Write a sequence for this structure.
């Protein structure tokens, strides 16, 4: 049998985005977002069909197969529309505007991807949806029916469509205003209120918030850890611990290879949506590291390190930067790569280990997912060891054997697709995660991974004028102007990297990025930051990210970075702009704290009492190393640490915290200041450990 010739490539074939290239053989006459598409729509006087998604999106692939690969559907699109394909990860500015438009047009109904929006040639949205099936089903109209209705309305009821579009555009522009919330100043009451709101949504049996589907919410869990510490409360810590344990024992966590899938489709964390996103695996390890700091529970350290090891093994490029996603699908089936039959477990492990694996991971002949098994844990290592009459260390050794054999067998399967584009913002989140873990766990390989990726961002994804690019891909140069989140996430990550390595170049670079943010993104009228720079491509609205989504609000991370930089560098303009941002978002923190987790983390730091710690001592002296490890292992979220070795010469001029702080008696010396008042210096590691034990 001869293989049919491949369909001719369209305009997307040479794009850097894997998602766009996945559509390069569609019969649809796709355009990438840009002036060519807009000019063509105006020339032909046609509406634009805007399709937004990302490479790991399962339903994006479904809609492509059902509709965009169908010649008859493509013919309708080509005859009546200018069709534009957008990768939401490369163009979050476009995605943000038109996802908000979808919410306005659908009166608050849930959005998601694929996002399908119809626009006038001047980019004004007038109709929107998400996935449309090939025929009327799931309570949704078929895509062909939608296309026909929109084409008819454009021809015969255009004024009505344009009128709807004007209302949406007006609402989009009005939505950028963020003013200080009424009812008081920034105070700890905002954190207490967040605790109450999260408590009402908490699932006391399975952990997490709300019902199925369940998302991990790492920022809110970190808020609970801070509430527990600040107010000495047991319930917030209990909620955070239960959620972190249940997530990591469920099928949403990859029990064989480490790392988290996107979310759980059920309430018990068993069945995941199988895609793996870099940002989830960047945001969750700090939550587990902080829980380890606060509780000392080694399980939390294990989950954090397994997740980071997964990223190093499967999501790290040869140049040290991090890839974006792994697909949910393999061989056209969602989850096929990750699930197991009982017979397969037996064949891979042999009878003795298979019996143990079946008990530990809940393997049955019937399976728990379409006749197969998603591996999960119902019990802790200690409980399972007792059930099998084994010591804990012996049990863990056998479990390690099981994981190794299963991983080796799984690695021979057809792997899910991997989107190898490198996104500046997501790399910032991952750099921060590795730097945090390197400091907390005393793991140099994590700190080295963070530094290598940071070097890549600052040399390859930053131009000669200090501006960040959004992205680059394998074989493609960097492109697109950076957004607020690119600057904020990277600046915050570099502060974290400084506190893990104490190399002042990271702090210098963080301050430079912060200065650029203030110069090009700051809103002098209302406070806070715009999502795009002042010289960015003009869209129908210049928006602000008002709340956390799957990634943190750029405004919130900017506030965090500025507050930490102010404490380390003494630059008052950084603190002033951070507090103005917190004030601008006070209403959001009060009214919808579940959407303001990152802003609440910044608030907790701002409320203090902020602790400024200067450590002076010989870098290679065991006492100095011990003192730094003691400080870094402790859960003190509203604290900054600076370090200087007198043998290196004068302290860096951009860190006044280190000025006039001599080493005493030739031994490591720690200076601790709170609220502009400094304690007596602590000399020697024993004194430092004793003082921290009392605090």
């Amino acid at each position: 049998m001869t293989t049919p010739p491949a369909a001719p490539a369209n305009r997307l074939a040479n794009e850097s985005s894997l998602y766009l290239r996945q559509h390069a053989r569609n019969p649809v006459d796709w355009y990438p977002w840009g002036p060519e598409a807009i000019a063509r729509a105006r020339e032909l006087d046609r509406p634009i069909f805007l399709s937004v998604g990302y490479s790991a999106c399962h339903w994006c692939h479904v809609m492509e197969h059902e509709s965009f690969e169908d010649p008859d559907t493509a013919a309708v699109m080509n005859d009546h529309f200018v069709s534009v394909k957008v990768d939401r990860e490369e163009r979050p500015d476009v995605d943000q505007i038109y996802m908000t438009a979808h919410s306005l047009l659908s009166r608050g109904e849930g959005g998601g991807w694929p996002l399908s929006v119809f626009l006038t040639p001047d980019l004004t949205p007038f109709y929107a949806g998400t996935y449309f099936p090939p025929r009327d089903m799931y309570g949704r109209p078929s895509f062909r029916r939608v296309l026909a209705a929109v084409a008819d309305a454009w021809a015969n009821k255009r004024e009505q469509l344009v009128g709807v579009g004007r209302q949406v555009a007006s609402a989009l522009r009005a939505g950028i205003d963020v003013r200080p919330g009424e009812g008081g100043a920034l105070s700890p009451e905002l954190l207490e209120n967040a605790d109450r709101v999260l408590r009402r949504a908490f699932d006391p049996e399975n952990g997490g918030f709300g019902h199925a589907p369940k998302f991990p919410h790492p920022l809110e869990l970190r808020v609970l850890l801070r509430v527990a510490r600040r107010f000495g409360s047991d319930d917030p810590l209990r909620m955070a611990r239960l959620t972190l344990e249940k997530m990591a024992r469920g099928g949403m966590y990859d029990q064989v290879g480490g790392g988290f899938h996107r979310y759980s489709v059920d309430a018990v964390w068993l069945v995941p949506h199988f895609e793996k996103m870099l940002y989830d695996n960047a945001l969750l390890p700090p939550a587990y590291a902080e829980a380890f700091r606060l509780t000392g529970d080694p399980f939390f350290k294990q989950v954090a390190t397994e997740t980071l090891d997964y990223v190093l093994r499967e999501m790290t490029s040869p140049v040290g930067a991090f890839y974006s996603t792994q697909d949910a699908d393999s061989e056209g089936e969602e989850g096929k790569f990750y699930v197991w039959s009982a017979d397969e477990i037996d064949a891979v492990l042999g009878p003795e280990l298979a019996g143990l694996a079946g008990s530990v991971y809940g393997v049955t002949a019937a399976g728990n997912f379409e006749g197969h098994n998603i591996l999960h844990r119902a019990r802790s290592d200690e409980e399972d060891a007792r059930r099998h009459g084994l010591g804990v260390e012996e049990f863990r050794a056998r479990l390690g054997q099981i994981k190794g054999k299963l991983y080796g067998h799984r690695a021979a399967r057809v792997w899910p697709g991997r989107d190898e584009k490198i996104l500046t913002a997501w790399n910032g989140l991952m750099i921060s995660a590795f730097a945090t873990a390197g400091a907390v766990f005393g793991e140099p390989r994590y700190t080295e991974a963070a530094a290598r990726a940071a070097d890549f961002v600052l040399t390859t994804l930053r131009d000669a004028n200090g501006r960040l690019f959004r992205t680059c891909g394998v074989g493609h140069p960097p492109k697109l102007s950076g957004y607020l989140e690119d600057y904020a996430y990277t600046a915050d990550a570099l502060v974290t990297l400084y506190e893990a390595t104490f190399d002042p170049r990271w702090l210098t670079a963080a301050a430079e990025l912060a200065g650029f943010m203030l110069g090009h993104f700051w809103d002098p009228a209302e406070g806070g930051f715009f999502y795009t720079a002042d010289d960015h491509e003009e869209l129908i609205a210049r928006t602000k990210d008002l709340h956390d989504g799957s990634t943190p609000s750029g405004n919130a991370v900017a506030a965090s970075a500025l507050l930490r930089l102010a404490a380390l560098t003494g630059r008052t303009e950084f603190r002033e702009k951070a507090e103005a941002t917190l004030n601008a978002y006070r209403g959001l923190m009060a009214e919808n704290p579940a959407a303001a987790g990152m802003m609440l983390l910044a608030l907790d730091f701002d409320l203090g009492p902020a602790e400024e710690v200067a450590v002076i001592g010989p870098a290679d002296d065991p006492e100095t190393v011990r003192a730094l490890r003691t400080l870094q292992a402790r859960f003190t979220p509203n604290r900054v640490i600076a370090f200087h070795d007198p043998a290196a010469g004068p302290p860096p001029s951009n860190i006044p915290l280190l000025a006039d702080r001599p080493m005493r008696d030739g031994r490591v010396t720690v200076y601790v200041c709170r609220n502009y008042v400094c304690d007596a210096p602590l000399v020697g590691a024993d004194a430092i450990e004793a003082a921290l034990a009392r605090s």
Remarks:
- The mean pLDDT is 94.
